[in-house]
Specification:
Largest interface: A-B, 60 and 38 residues
Order of helices and strands of chain B: EHEEHEHHEHEHE
Largest sheet of chain A: 6 strands, antiparallel
Distance between the termini of chain A: 44 Å
Oligomer: heterodimer
Strand order of the largest sheet of chain A: 3-1-12-11-7-8
Helix content of chain B: 25-40%
Order of helices and strands of chain A: EHEEEHHHHHEEEEEEEHHHEH
Strand content of chain A: 15-25%
Shape of chain B: globular
Shape of chain A: globular
Number of strands of chain A: 12
Number of helices of chain B: 6
Structural class of chain A: alpha+beta
Structural class of chain B: alpha/beta
Number of helices of chain A: 10
Radius of gyration of chain A: 19 Å
């Protein structure tokens, strides 16, 4: 048997909050993937949460632009746009810590300005928001998983979990203790890059078998942090015993249950699962793979929330067709 | 379908705390009894608001202060089970002690970081007789104290509006003024319904880093701030 390589597959869903449905408000979250197939040796997932308050009149759109911006910035790393060859990992680490936060925020502001140019804020919208940046305010979280390194970034509330092969769950980014009571840092903050937290993790030992990103509506639906962290280990158990198809078919309803029984908020989750592949035959090894039937079908659209489609070629413009939400 | 991942789910706690002045002056002109009646009348309306927002678990308590301070309803009580036992009046006005006791309850723990911003309602008819500033500082030193929705009702003409304004902590929100029983009922109804409703479903707000601002949009009332005397005023 040849050397086992690492690949990844992603499954995600986004549901409108139970309290938002009562108030006839739309889902303010967004989720996006790169590549569009949601599988590969490298995979990017981004989620964002529009603030939804009366000032943030376009925060649903802001969230869409945020996941686009995150994908745009992170995919250059996959395609060698930052560093190649010896010393690559050190160069990438420096880039991630020193440049990525500002580039992400700048790219988001550029997209916001472009959207506002094409569709100017009305007088009423400006009276609430005061400025376009505020109007589109949102959080953003993203993960880039590859065979050599992991990158996590976060601005605002929400959660990123890593689960190892032994089922242990951890947060690669520590919680920001200031963020309680629905208060959050944001892309709309002044000098928002100062609030972006990043982790660059070279893969020395075994990479995590599962990574989860979620907007804050999910964790806020559990009685305490321990109950939420159990999601990570339970998902690993579910996938190993019943296959990725169980996650694919169940995720949307689990999130709906969370919002109804818990926070009432919009809930968005992206799950990335490691596939260990043999170089000899490219078939996933049994211990950490999804079933052959699932592999041929790919990570299909989840329920009513079709996945976001990001063109794979870096030469194409990042045209997001939808954002995986109802 | 596979079982749902994760542990027990729960709605988010919303702590609502009445902070009631029970000093001797509250015994005059039946102010304390009108306060008791107004809170009792408000309970069904609080329950109705809570029913409309099932994702917020409204938990009610009450603290009384006069000479010292004591919990009148010490346990966070689901609003469906909340009952009001009448307060009596007598003693001085130890507001500082009351605020320190509230501050203790807003620490993490017993609060959790997944709670909704608490609502604190201060009702007073006079001037504090202890070091209220230390108590207020203790309250504001707590993250949940800072993020709490703080409203105040000035009962009668002798209430110290400056102190109440400091408690509120937002220049654009003024103390509500009740110079007669009808106004007291109206104000208590408002904080029990409109403010509670706003706190039950707060949107995310850009803040962090020490902001005093609450992310709860408190609906406007045209009934706050000093009012000219009228023939209906009895207090």
């Amino acid at each position: 048997m040849g050397e086992v390589g690492v690949g990844w597959v992603g499954v995600g869903a986004s549901v409108v909050g139970a309290s938002h449905e009562r108030a006839k408000k739309r889902n303010q979250d967004a989720i996006a993937w790169y590549p569009a197939s949601q599988t590969g040796e490298s995979l990017i997932v981004a989620v964002a949460d529009g603030h939804g308050g009366e000032r943030y009149v376009r925060s649903r759109c802001g969230a869409e632009l945020a996941v686009e911006a995150a994908i745009h910035e992170l995919r250059t790393l996959i395609h060698g746009g930052v560093a190649t060859g010896p010393g690559k990992l050190s160069a990438l680490s420096r880039f991630v810590h020193e440049h990525l936060p500002r580039r992400l925020c700048t790219e988001w502001e550029r997209r916001v300005a472009s959207h506002a140019d094409a569709s100017p804020l009305t007088e009423e919208e400006l009276s609430f928001a005061g400025s376009p940046r505020i109007a589109y305010g949102c959080t953003v979280l993203a993960a880039l998983v590859s065979s050599e390194y992991l990158i996590y970034l976060q601005l605002g509330d929400g959660d990123i979990l890593e689960v190892l092969d032994d089922g242990s769950v951890s947060r690669p980014l520590t919680l920001d203790e200031r963020l309680i009571g629905n208060e959050t840092t944001s892309l709309a903050s002044s000098k928002p890059w100062r609030e972006v937290r990043v982790v660059f993790q070279p893969l020395v030992d075994s990479p995590p078998c599962l990574v989860l990103l979620s907007t804050d509506g999910y964790a806020n639906s559990f009685r305490d942090d321990g109950a939420f962290l159990r999601v990570g280990s339970d998902l690993v158990e579910i996938i190993r015993s019943e296959g990725l198809s169980a996650l694919d078919s169940g995720l949307k309803s689990w999130l709906e249950e969370a919002s109804t029984a818990g926070s009432g908020d919009d809930v968005t989750v992206g799950v990335v699962w490691r596939i260990d592949q043999s170089a000899d035959d490219q078939d996933p090894v049994e211990t950490n793979s999804w079933h052959a039937d699932d592999a041929s079908a790919g990570p299909a659209s989840v329920g009513d929330s079709p996945s976001t489609s990001i063109p794979e070629s870096p030469s194409e413009s990042a045209e997001v067709l939808d954002h995986g939400r109802p | 379908m596979a079982r749902r991942p994760g542990g027990e789910m729960a709605t988010r706690p919303l702590h609502f705390i009445w902070i009631a002045d029970c000093s001797g002056s509250m015994a005059s002109e039946a102010k304390i009894q009108e306060l008791n009646n107004a809170i009792k009348e408000a309970i069904p309306h609080m329950k109705a608001v809570a029913d409309e927002n099932p994702n917020a678990e409204v938990l009610v308590r009450a603290l009384r202060f006069s000479s010292g301070a004591q919990w009148h309803v010490p346990t966070p009580t689901p609003v469906a089970d909340f009952r009001w036992a009448d307060l009596s009046a007598g003693g001085v006005t130890d507001l500082g002690r009351a605020l320190s006791m509230i501050a203790d309850q807003l620490k993490i723990p017993p609060m959790t970081d997944r709670a909704l911003p608490p609502v604190l309602v201060l009702l007073s008819d006079g001037q504090p007789t202890d070091d209220y500033a230390t108590g207020l500082r203790a309250l504001m030193d707590q993250p949940w104290g800072k993020k709490a929705v703080r409203v105040a009702i000035a009962i009668g003409s002798d209430a110290d509006h400056d102190v109440l304004q400091q408690f509120i902590g937002h220049t654009e929100i003024k103390p509500l003024v009740a110079k007669n029983p009808e106004a007291l009922v109206r104000h208590i109804r408002w904080v029990s319904t409109a403010v509670l409703k706003a706190a039950s479903a707060p949107a995310s707000r850009v803040g962090a880093g020490g902001s005093f601002d609450t992310n709860v949009h408190i609906p406007e009332t045209h009934d706050s701030g000093p009012t000219p005397s009228s023939s209906n005023d009895v207090w």
